[in-house]
Design a protein that fits this description.
By secondary structure, the chain is of the alpha+beta class. It is 30% helix and 19% strand. Strands 1, 2, 3, 4, 10, 11, 12, 13, 14 and 15 form a ten-stranded antiparallel beta sheet that branches. It has a three-stranded antiparallel beta sheet with strand order 5-9-6, covered by helices on one side. α2 runs antiparallel to α12 and α3 packs across α8. The radius of gyration is 20 Å and the shape is globular.
Length: 402
């Protein structure tokens, strides 16, 4: 989920500085030259962010136009245990995982395994519930990946809220399956005609994921690993599925919510004393569903924009098919296939996606007119404005300001 939904998503929920720079596939030991303006900019950003934002730790990365990765980690991954944030510390992806999902499905379409524009109703002919979805007969994968199918966001659905709060309070399973999540909007009126407008909903991605699984006969995470993660290069294990409570190298997150969130047990520290998440995160699925590092996020966006994850023609589809989101004097933004396409005077054109998971916030962008990618993550969901944080980091890189 994007940070624009944080106020609703809250229901669910300084150590030393480290720097490294390396070309893709090179050992992690290559050092960053002291005179590097980008290195100074990113280290200055991290120090400032830690000092001015309410967060235990921060991790950030930039991939330069010549494919060097510059990373910084500052603060604490686990204040209780006194563990420092490092470049290999994973944080929950939130909705930045949607771009990974879209790239996976676009890769399948690129090879003719599935058709983004074909109606998906025939795929679910053996599942009677499907016809009760909003706009069921007209649905296709492109529409879902652009959030144009007219589904409401699950946090706006009363049936979901009542079920989730009750199950969380009574200790029942809250790792709802994608089909369980979709069951909360059966017989609901669509928010818009098919493909006519953008209405952000994780449920669009839940349906896209199970559609790909039915067509291929394989699990989403297997498809993701084969078609996207295997192409990222070293370090290979920066990204891992977040479909279990035990995730190695995961920072402790800190969540703040309202009274209802507290009733559901979704506030405070996200992990127990052993580092295991207090709640099963698998409900996220294709709407997020990953734990990763900023260097993986930035590397993914750089490679995606350079035609190294899907073909250049397929990437052009991801940004060329889009629905308007906002247009003001300051910013123009639309949503493509798993990507926001933005334009701001001070940054030019860039693609991006933010993410929220209880206790964690993330943002990543590729700045088209400047040729670099940047990503930042915090292990808190309150205090840092993750959209402004990405712009702060990118602005420092562009201007060379420390």
């Amino acid at each position: 989920m994007t940070v624009t939904d944080i106020s609703r998503r809250k229901l669910l929920g300084g150590a030393g500085l480290a720097l490294a720079a390396l070309p893709f596939g090179s050992p992690l030991g290559i050092g960053l030259a002291a005179e590097s303006k980008t290195g100074s900019a990113i280290s200055g950003f991290a120090s400032s962010a830690l000092a001015t934002r309410m967060t235990p730790g921060i991790s950030a990365a930039v991939v330069t136009p010549d494919a060097r990765i510059i990373t910084v980690a500052n603060g604490l991954a686990d204040p209780q245990a006194g563990l420092a944030m490092t470049n290999s510390t994973r944080l929950m992806s939130g909705s930045t995982g949607k771009t990974f999902c879209a790239a996976t499905l676009v890769s399948l379409a690129q090879e003719g395994v599935l058709d983004l524009d074909a109606p998906i109703a025939p795929v679910f002919a053996d599942e009677s519930w499907f016809v009760r979805l909003p706009n069921a007969k007209a649905l296709n994968l492109r529409m879902l990946l652009m959030h144009g199918a007219g589904f409401p966001q699950f946090l706006d659905v009363g049936a979901f809220m009542r079920s989730y709060i009750w199950d969380a309070m009574t200790g029942k399973d809250i790792a709802y399956s994608p089909r369980k999540m979709l069951s909360f909007i059966l017989d609901a009126a669509p928010l818009n005609a098919p493909g006519a407008a953008h209405a952000y909903s994780d449920l669009h991605y839940h349906l896209a994921g199970i559609t790909a699984e039915k067509i291929t006969g394989r699990s989403y995470y297997d498809l993701l690993t084969e078609r996207v993660l295997a192409k990222l290069g070293d370090p290979h294990d920066d990204v891992t599925p977040a479909n279990t409570r035990t995730i190695e190298r995961l920072a402790a997150g800190y969540a703040r919510g309202d009274v209802i969130a507290a009733m559901a047990g979704m506030t405070g520290r996200t992990t127990d004393e052993t580092g295991v998440l207090r709640h099963d995160p698998s409900l996220e699925y294709t709407g997020g569903g990953l734990a990763l590092t900023p260097r993986a996020l930035a590397r993914f966006y750089w490679k995606l924009a350079h035609g190294q994850i899907v073909s250049p023609a397929s990437f052009a589809q991801m940004t060329g098919s889009s629905l308007p989101v906002v247009k003001t004097a300051e910013v123009t933004s639309s949503y493509g296939l798993g990507i926001f396409i933005n334009e701001r005077a001070e940054f030019g054109r860039y693609i991006s996606h933010s993410g929220f998971f209880p206790g964690y916030t993330s943002n990543v962008g590729y700045f088209i007119d400047h040729g670099f990618a940047a990503a930042v993550q915090f292990n808190t969901d309150h205090g840092p404005d993750i959209n402004q944080s990405l712009r702060d980091l990118a602005g420092r890189v562009i201007t060379g300001k420390r």
